[in-house]
C-alpha cells in the first residue's frame, strides 16, 4: 500500500511585536496568503490528508488551519503536538512510525531547522539547503505499515514552495 507523508514548514511569520515570544509569533500578511495558496496546490495535486499534525506554536497552527480550509479538511481534527516545536529530525521519525495504519496520507506542519534536516534524511536523491516558509516536501513509501517508515526506501515526489513557478 502506498503511504504519503507531506512535510510543511509553517508560513512566513511576523516579527513586528517584540512582546511576543517565539512560540506566540503569528503569521504575517504574506504567510496568511501563502498558506491557503499552498493548500490549493496540494488539492490540485490530489494530496488530501487523512490527518494533519501540527506544532502547537501559533504560526504553525495558523498555517495548518489555512491549509486545511483550502483542502476541505476539518480544522477541528488537526492534531497539535508540542514536541514538533523546534524538534530534532528523530522526532519526525518517531511520530511517523507510530501513525495508525488506517491513515494513508498525513501532513505534518513544523519548523526549521528540524524539518530541513529531516527531509534531507528521506532519500539520497533529494537534498535542499533550506526548507522555505510554507514549503512542502512529500515522500511516499510502499508498505502496509507506517512502522516500516524509518527502514524502508522513500520516494520524494514533491518539492513545492510559494515562490516556485508552476
Short overview:
The protein is of the alpha/beta class and 166 residues long.
Helices, strands, pairings?
Layout lengths: L1 E8 L19 H16 L6 E5 L2 H14 L7 E3 L7 H9 L7 E6 L3 H9 L13 E7 L12 E6 L6
Parallel strand pairs: 1-4, 2-3, 2-4
Antiparallel strand pairs: 1-5, 5-6
Helix pairs in contact: 1-2, 3-4
What can you see in these coordinates?
- The structure is a single chain.
- By secondary structure, the protein is an alpha/beta fold.
- Helix content is 29%, strand content 21%.
- It contains four helices and six strands, in the order βαβαβαβαββ.
- The chain has a six-stranded mixed beta sheet with strand order 3-2-4-1-5-6, sandwiched between helices.
- The protein starts with a strand and ends in a 6-residue tail after the last strand.
- The mean pLDDT is 95.
Q: What attributes characterize this protein structure?
A:
166 residues, alpha/beta, 6 strands, 21% strand
Poorly predicted segments: none
- Quick one: biggest sheet? 6 strands, mixed
How many helical elements?
Answer: 4
Helix content: 25-40%
Number of strands: 6
Beta-strand percent range: 15-25%
Q: Compute the CA-based radius of gyration.
A: 15 Å
The secondary structure category is alpha/beta
Distance from first to last alpha carbon: 29 Å
Q: What topology, given as strand order, has the largest sheet?
A: 3-2-4-1-5-6
SSE order, as H and E? Answer: EHEHEHEHEE
- Rounded mean pLDDT is 95
